[in-house]
């Protein structure tokens, strides 16, 4: 697999040597440097220019510890005493202090130290690779006391944008935002009208979309289980389930679903471009118009965790945008009792009004998107807190009772 298609932590010295053997040229997607950025203000500004030039164009890689000759990768130069955690913090500090808007997905995420050994001298060390995304927030500017500038890249390396190029960059950024917005609205419209890959029970649904900001192209979604491996198959299961009744390819990619009484209670749709859609009606009780509060919160958390695991295994890197929606929920209340009113157990039972909130006042709720900069399962609950708070605020509560005053998870 080409090095650009690998997760950074999987890159080896053999991959770096392949850049040399293939005579990889610097330019639009690659930049080779002998040493790490210096500590002077000029050196920091130069690093920020390099990173911004990639983020403003098509993304790419900076390789520290690689000698170039006439713009072509020529020799691995092991860097001594590399502490990648310290280096990530240093990169982030430079970008925070020298660029606007902040470049998502670079500092602290896509920087990796590759262990290498010089075959001729036996000297060991590291080559540091930084992977910069094609940013959705472009154009990014580099600023300093008294000035600022914008950079992009072509086959000759980085260059300063002129007025027309800068105008085009702003228009491109607006186009990406519009694409994601249109995707969400189209999908929610289909769910609300019943045009789902697997029919849901009733007209009410919780829908979570996880959309890569740099969409993958032609993911082999015919059967992702072959890619992900058996240990992590659960990440492809629909919400409110650990398995599925059906798994099959469709025009958009790949679907898993579970069925109850002839209809799907939940499904997962993996799209060819790496986007993931989880939809479930299992958190609702239709007779009394209830949404089980804790199941709803857990389903949103599970959707982010499962999508993150699946995308990471498929080689789709962050950042991703998480978008949660509710459809058909006018007059539904959040119900916080642990005594569920479904199936034979709930037959004839009346909901406890002490555990019911005020009803939702609209049919469709589109929660603001959450930017996820790294796939970190241990931090998912804190990541989705703004959405869970907004859900409870929609029924006149201050925020989710699952968190304490410091924003830490307290519900067991």
Describe this structure as you would to a colleague.
There is one protein chain. The protein is of the alpha+beta class and 412 residues long. The protein has 2 domains: 3-161, Schlafen, AAA domain (Methyltransferase, Cobalt-precorrin-4 Transmethylase, Domain 2, 2-Layer Sandwich), CATH 3.30.950; 178-393, no CATH class. The protein has 9 helices and 21 strands. The strands form 5 sheets. Strands 11, 12, 13, 14, 15, 18, 20 and 21 form an 8-stranded antiparallel β-sheet that branches. Helix 2 links the parallel strand 1 (30-33) and strand 2 (60-64).
Describe the structure in brief:
Helix content is about 25%, strand content about 25%. By secondary structure, the protein is an alpha+beta fold. The chain folds into 2 domains: about 5-160, Schlafen, AAA domain (Methyltransferase, Cobalt-precorrin-4 Transmethylase, Domain 2); about 180-395, no CATH class.
- Total domain count: 2
Distance between the termini: 43 Å
Number of helices: 9
For this structure, the quaternary state is: single chain
- Overall SS class: alpha+beta
Order of helices and strands: HEHEEEHEEEEEEHEHEEEEEEHEEHEEHH
Mean pLDDT: 85
Helix content: 25-40%
Low-confidence stretches: none
Can you tell me the overall shape?
elongated
Strand content: 25-35%
Indicate the radius of gyration in whole angstroms. 24 Å
Number of strands: 21
Largest sheet: 8 strands, antiparallel
């Amino acid at each position: 697999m080409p090095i650009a298609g690998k997760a950074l932590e999987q890159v080896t010295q053999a991959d770096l040597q392949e850049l040399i053997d293939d005579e990889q040229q610097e330019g639009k997607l690659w930049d080779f440097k002998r040493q790490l950025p210096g500590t002077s203000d000029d050196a920091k500004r130069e690093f920020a220019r390099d990173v911004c030039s990639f983020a403003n164009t098509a993304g790419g890689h900076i390789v520290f510890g690689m000698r170039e000759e006439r713009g072509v990768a020529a020799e691995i130069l092991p860097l001594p005493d590399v502490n990648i955690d310290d280096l990530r913090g240093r990169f982030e500090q430079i970008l925070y202090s020298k660029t606007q808007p902040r470049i998502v997905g670079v500092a602290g995420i896509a920087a990796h130290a590759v262990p290498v050994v010089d075959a001729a001298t036996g000297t060991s060390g590291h080559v540091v690779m930084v992977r910069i995304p094609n940013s959705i927030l472009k154009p990014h500017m580099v600023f300093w006391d008294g000035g600022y500038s914008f950079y992009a890249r072509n086959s000759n390396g980085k260059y300063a944008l002129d007025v027309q190029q800068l105008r085009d960059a702003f228009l491109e950024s607006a186009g990406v935002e519009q694409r994601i917005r249109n995707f969400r609205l189209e999908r929610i419209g289909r769910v609300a009208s019943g045009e789902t890959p697997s029919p849901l029970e009733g007209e009410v649904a919780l829908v979570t979309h996880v959309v890569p900001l740099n969409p993958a192209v032609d993911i082999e979604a015919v059967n992702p289980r072959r890619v992900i491996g058996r240990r992590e198959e659960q990440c492809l299961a629909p919400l409110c389930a650990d398995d599925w009744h059906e798994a099959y390819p469709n025009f958009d990619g790949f679907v898993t679903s579970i069925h109850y009484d002839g209809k799907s209670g939940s499904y997962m749709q993996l799209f060819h471009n790496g986007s993931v859609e989880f939809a479930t009606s299992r958190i609702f009780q239709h007779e009394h118009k209830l949404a089980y509060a804790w199941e709803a919160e857990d389903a949103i958390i599970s959707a982010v965790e499962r999508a993150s695991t699946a995308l990471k295994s498929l080689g789709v890197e962050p950042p991703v945008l998480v978008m949660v929606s509710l459809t058909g929920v006018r007059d539904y209340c959040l119900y916080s009792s642990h005594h569920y009113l479904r199936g034979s157990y709930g037959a004839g039972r009346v909901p406890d009004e002490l555990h019911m909130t005020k009803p939702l006042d609209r049919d469709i709720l589109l929660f603001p998107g959450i930017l996820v900069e790294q796939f970190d399962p241990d931090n998912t609950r804190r990541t989705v807190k703004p959405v869970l708070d907004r859900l409870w605020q929609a029924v006149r509560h201050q925020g989710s009772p699952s968190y304490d005053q410091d924003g830490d998870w307290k519900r067991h």
